[in-house]
Design goal:
- The protein is an alpha+beta fold.
- 31% of the residues lie in helices and 13% in strands.
- It has a domain of 124 residues: 2-Layer Sandwich (Alpha-Beta Plaits), CATH 3.30.70.3270.
- It has a three-stranded antiparallel sheet with strand order 2-3-5.
- The longest helix is centred in the last third of the chain and has 26 residues.
- The protein starts with a helix and ends with a helix.
């Protein structure tokens, strides 16, 4: 009896499975041929971050807002007369006074929360629609956005150091008392009482 029951269960199970398969066989396909065909991303998607370094003023607000500390920024103060970047100002007309020598984002740590975007005063950091950037190593996920070469960084650091030394010398010279000649007059000699009586 159990033998025939098992045969019935096997056949009925196969028929149920085949019935589901045939029902879906003639329906419209819901899959897409990725990567040739791609779905349209939503308007407010949060993917890889991009930094327009020409508009960055090095304020470090994005790095301070990051909850996972994946943004690293290093700056060098510009000396008077030195132009930061191509024009010295952002696209919004804000003056740039700091060279951004390092602007790194580690996308291996990034949680795509978008909290770094909102505090930026020049709107130079924003989310893009790029989501395909896998790498074979963790170092490949560290993106450098600064356009300064190591030679430029060393040059700006040296120039700032020389300027600081020059300013320190000026302050030291100003702090010293002015070397004006002092008129030394002999003390006034008062006649003694005997001399007064003799006169």
């Amino acid at each position: 009896m159990k033998y025939f029951k098992h045969i019935y269960q096997a056949i009925s199970t196969i028929l149920i499975g085949m019935g589901i398969t045939f029902r879906h066989l003639f329906q419209k396909s819901v899959t897409i041929q990725y990567p040739e065909v791609r779905l349209q991303l939503p308007e407010r998607e949060r993917n890889r971050i991009f930094v327009n370094i020409d508009d960055c003023i090095g304020c470090d607000q994005c790095a301070r807002a990051c909850p996972v500390s994946c943004i690293t920024i290093e700056t060098i103060k510009a000396v008077p007369g030195d132009i930061v970047g191509k024009t010295g100002v952002t696209s919004q007309g804000k003056k740039k006074s700091l060279f951004v020598s390092k602007f790194e984002i580690d996308f291996g740590k990034c949680c795509f929360c978008q909290l770094c975007v909102f505090p930026c005063p020049t709107e130079c950091i924003y989310m893009t629609d790029v989501f395909e950037y896998s790498s074979y190593s963790r170092d490949g996920l560290i993106y450098q956005f600064s356009d300064m070469t190591p030679e430029m960084v060393e040059e700006k650091k040296k120039k700032l150091e020389e300027y600081n030394i020059e300013q320190a010398k000026k302050k030291e010279a100003a702090a010293k008392p002015a070397g004006k000649p002092v008129n030394i007059q002999p003390p006034e000699v008062k006649p003694s009482e005997g001399e007064n009586k003799a006169q």
